[in-house]
Amino acid sequence: MIAQAIHAQAVVGASAKLAGSVSVGAYAIIGDDVTLGEGCVVHSHAVITGPTVAGRNNIFHPFCSVGGDPQDLKFAGERTTLTIGDDNTFREYVTVSRGTVGGGGETTIGGGNLFMAYAHIAHDCHVGSNTIFANGATLAGHVAVEDFASVGAFSPVHQFCRIGRYAYIGASTVITQDVPPFSRVVTERQTTSYGINAVGLQRKGFSAERLAALKSAYRLLLRAKLNTSQALEEMKKSLGDSADVRELIQFIESAERGIVK
User: Fold this and answer.
1) Are 116 and 242 contained in the same domain?
2) Which residues are catalytic?
């Protein structure tokens, strides 16, 4: 068995229970009433507070905060818990709250989950196993996420919603109702280009001539009744002397995912 390795500048509560192979980095804080199983790694500056029980081989990256008080105005210091399974990864600035008395008193997380930076698991949530939470994915209180689900970056999930097994939620999608299992849910994209960044370019020292050439190019691209290929050909004919327009043409011609129009 690997020997326990606790940095001299870590803080470990007197009642914390750490298995023999747990590693704790400098300035990490492990509070009272925290139990960590074999193979857990607590990196520098991570904070784990209790009552929290975590199984084996969980990794807590710098500045994550796991097991904190619920963000609920009704919480008055009651004993509530967080229970974590095995093989989870909590990346930087992930936050996980314990439960509330009104919500059953417990937040639970299964095993094999990846919580990317800034993900948030609120009080009384129940997360299954083998899920992926991308950067900034956010669960309000009382949310249930079933096994193998994926929650995209910066996607908030309303309280009391359920995310079914194998469901996929695309980035920046707001969830206010249950997401059925096996489904793919993505907010409709309506990103639109409105022409050149005139004020920003002026501040960067672009001359009136350069701005005029770019404005003409974008009129062809966005306002003329031309498809992209036709607009590029017209730019080459009428605006090819402009280095900025040539750069724009080259960028569009090399696009592999299309362009915002």
Assistant:
1) no
2) 123-124, 141
